[in-house]
Amino acid sequence: xxxxxxxxxxxxxxxxxxxxxxxxxxxxxxxxxxxxxxxxxxxxxxxxxxxxxxxxxxxxxxxxxxxxxxxxxxxxxxxxxxxxxxxxxxxxxxxxxxxxxxxxxxxxxxxxxxxxxxxxxxxxxxxxxxxxxxxxxxxxxxxxxxxxxxxxxxxxxxxxxxxxxxxxxxxxxxxxxxxxxxxxxxxxxxxxxxxxxxxxxxxxxxxxxxxxxxx
Length: 215
Fold this sequence. Notes:
This protein is about 40% helix and about 15% strand. By secondary structure, the chain is an alpha/beta fold.
């Protein structure tokens, strides 16, 4: 039986010139997760991450916290979708410095993207995103032992949605998963004789209350 731990990256730098940098809290979240997993006896056979800096740096801090000897390896399949481009398209001059305003525009933009009527407008249409994330999950399950994949809320949410309802090509459940995924939370997926199953979602008991963040 294979086991994959899907980890959302640590808190990024919302409102900064470069969002794709872990905040101090994000680094600490990542170290705490590595330490907690090591205490549970988790020793990854492989650890992969997407191409974004916040994903890579989460992996590095987790390895430091866990005291693991595994070397993080990049896999572009785990990179987040272009949420910056989607939001910019939908913003229409609105002020996005407030987190609530940003979240509203983010949800509008991603609903349009995943809705199925505007695929030609996007560099990575929704079906391509589905295919990319599914193939990334296939690759990690091809290995032996436990694999940790550091990614973002989008890939985690869409994979969970497809595992819960594989018949839904547009994965309408994905928004529900995406909006509640905590930074450095762990989602466990197992593969056995009957296929792949979602074992747990959004575990974050390693975080004290003041370090629970969503963006």
